[in-house]
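pinning this so it doesn't scroll away 📌
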Amino acid sequence: MEDGILMMLNSGIDEAAIQNNLKQFLLVLSVSLSVATLPQVFSWFRQIPYTLLLVIVGLCLAFVDVRLADLSPELILSIFLPPLLFEAGWNFKWLDLKRDILPISLYAIIGVVISIIGIAFGLNQVNGLSLTTALLIGASLSATDPVSVTALFRELGVGSRLTTLMEGESLFNDGMAVVAFSFLVGLPLGTSQLGIQPILLQFFSVVGIGIAVGGLIGFGISYLTQRFDLPLVEQSLTLVSAYGTYLITEDLGGSGVIGVVTTALILGNFGSRIGMNPRTRIIVSEFWEFLAFFVNSIVFLLIGDQIHFAILGENLGIIAVTLAAMILMRALGIYGLGYFCNSVANSEISSQQQTILWWGGLRGSVSIALALSIPVNLPEREKIIATVFGVVLFTLLVQGLTVKPLLDKLKLLNNEPLRQEYSEILARLTALNRVLGYLAQVETRPGVDLEYHRYQQTLIKGEINRLQEEIDQLQKQYPNLMGFTNEQLRSELLAVEADTYAEFVKKGRLNRELAPFLEADEPHSS
């Protein structure tokens, strides 16, 4: 009887907890979506990137002591991190990665090491923190999270090369940071050994397992989707692969971050070509765009909401030293490794681009999650968390809000409004020409009203002539648009060639995809 009562009580408690969590989730989502509408209502807010606006609103809520939810590190790492990584990897072009693999690899690997050592040295020497605490702060802050910066890049029309470098570094240094952090946490717990050989062994083991599991799942799903054409099933498979890869890799002792990135790169660049038709690819891409927006909306709002101002005030000195060391080490890594890449591999990363890579290296949700995941029995845990929160807050608000003026000062902003207008006119002209061609095909269809048919034909021809005049006028006024048109045409031709090889592989006429002929003389984007 007592057991039955206890079971009923436990069941009631569980139901109440679930209901409470659901209410918290809906509250967070409602606030996030309300923030998303602010720029549409008040034009001034359009100057602030959406993710930074969420952080500011979260800070305002924290200031009046309104807490939306408890920010669990396991929740971020296990639920929020996989979709963010997968979306970035899915949209990352292999050709861009291959072109800049050297600088991206150096920034992601050597850059992380420089950052950890520099921050730890500064905190140890200036603030007298123990080496363990200093190293953990450095490892937590070694992962860049430029979500808001890359979103700003796309909005302002910054060159694709700069976006590739920043996103590529972030994709891989997340994995490096998690590997380094896991090793350093294990030192005081006795699960890791200090020494070159143990460090290298653990590094290659963790990275190797991540790549192996990610590759197996990525290629497996790629070939599986060749067998059928069911858009919703294929979309669901990508979602399962993101979470499945992360959880399986972590259970096997590998890096879930590297596993998810590997799977996403394979599915986005190979699987979506050989196993999905163009319509399905669009459906899947739109799904991941929505999911990334959804997850970012929650994460960045909660980052601001979880700030405790009293704890930040107690650790201002440590935060200031950490910031100075982090920015200095970031400059050393970016400019030093950039110079090496330009000298050895002729990477042609300009000093202006390096400056944006330096200042745009924001910290975000990964750093917060790593700091919060420190075991409670480790000394100075609260000090580490407060320092990481303070630094993340500075990078998001100060660096994040000053990237746009810096881009403008360094003359790295393309004339995006003009390009967008030109692209829209071209798209409308192409669409109307297709409509005109279709009208010619259905002219003799039984039951078609010829008068209505001629009216539509005249209407469309008039609009086509107007659009053509507008294009001619823009090209005459802005001659550089001709170069933009050629870039677009080149991308379209390359896509047609690559899709044809993928179609041949899908039909069994080729056993592997051929490297596109047109990529051989691919020009660098500025």
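📌 and the second one:
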Amino acid sequence: MHLSGRIELTSGHFTSAGPKPRNEDCLAVRIPDDQLLPTKGIVACIADGVSAASAGKEAAEASVLGFVADYFETPESWEVKTSGQRVLTALNRWLFSQGQGFSTAEKGCVTTFTALVLKSRTAHIFHVGDSRLYRLRGGELEQVTRDHAARISADTCHLTRALGLTLSPRIDYHSLTLEEGDRFVLSTDGIHGFIPHPQLESLVRSGASSQAIADALGEAASASDDNRSCIVLEVGSLPDGDKDDIFRQLSALPFPPDLSPGQVIDDLRVEKILSASKNSQLYVVSDLADDGRPLILKAPSVSFSDNPSYLERFAMEEWIGLRTDNPHLAKAVRRKQRPRFLYCLMEQVNGITLGRWTENHPTPPVETVISLAGQITDGVRALHRKDTLHQDLKPDNIVLGEDGVLKIIDYGSCHVGGISEISTPFERHSALGTVDFSAPEYRLGTKPTTRSDLFSIATITYFLLTGGQHPYGPAWERASTTKDFLTLEYRPAAAINPMVPPWIDGVLRKALSMRPESRHDSMSEFIHNLRKPGPELLATAPLPLAKRNPLVFWKVAAAIGFTGWLLTWIALR
């Protein structure tokens, strides 16, 4: 999959120890290769080791070099904010632990830190301390970051926040929309502390190159008694906003023709047609270049050949399948041979869908269903760790293999945080999951979260326990407003399957709440409660007979009523 996201810029930098015996500043700019550039962006960061600390220089170097290295090792599917915050949290813990050998935190590994990540058409900023980030736009220089320092006297400032100072510092994060021509300056206080703002603005606004501006800033602060460092970046161009160009990238390969058993494309022989819908066609194929290895070939529908949003989602399926590794997630397959057509190859999973399995097992053992729910949860949690929501979990998208292992086989509706940050000139359409199993927030137009996938898992669990029933019955499909959803009444699974313990209904009712914030805090809490109910769940009162088995209840009620009438009639005789 090729993603449009190339930013072109020029950069320059300056660093000097000044009158001090060593330079405790550190800075870096990294522009990754074309493969990572769209998903991870360009990173620039600067740090000023605290001079009062015994290892300020080491702290600055560790934070800058560690951030640049570790940020690009985080999953491409993660949002910039997620990647940056997790890397900085780990770096801070290491710096703080290194400083524990000193009598005070100030005598340990402490540094300021400011990072700028330019991705697609957005600038992401991470900041702690009193190093700074400026942006020049329209001839006006704006200080983007806020100093985390308290002035004690005219000559003395005390840092209130820094990396390595405390175990859990508050690190500022925010984002800005990029424009072509934007100029950014990252600097330590040896630069901005000695150049008046009007002069700083004049130097940055000049028509000189980025390197010449960086040198000029260093020279203007030559009277500084501190280390002085800066980075200057100027955005030349942003990802192409031409819809036609983006479309050509996505549709560079032709759609394959409708295939029949026996046909061969790219050394893939069609053995069987699995399905053909308005969205795609699925085939079982044999890889003739790999000893006939069986694979599943998914081909896009020609009905969407002029729809870039559909094409992007189709390409994403392979992208997700190649970057996830979990026994409950089907893997995509990348062959050495370059394809001549647009299609996606997945591993073949032998078995039956959970929809078909439920038809064959209308009243399965409760412990079997809990085991299956645990496998689904494990696979979905692996996606969530990649900052990916599945959004279309349903029995027909999950296959139970002949070895008893479940696999989620379809990623066509997934939302990937890191990819959603990449701007496109076309509108992305979020593919709504199957109504029966998707959370209410999809129909209400509110932002889905991991708890939306939890709702789907709980619905599938209920479906398996009750032989294909829905927890809110036929009224679920008709609901369309918040009021509609809030008036729906949960139907206990035990009312349909008497073998379901009451506490199972307690767990499912919570996970199936109409309000996302009322559901379980995590997938692990949900599955743990299903497997090992706590005392509060075990103490759940049994359902009244009217709800546990309405048919029996009314039969008994009718019998009692008739008996009472009969006795009264006899007495009156």
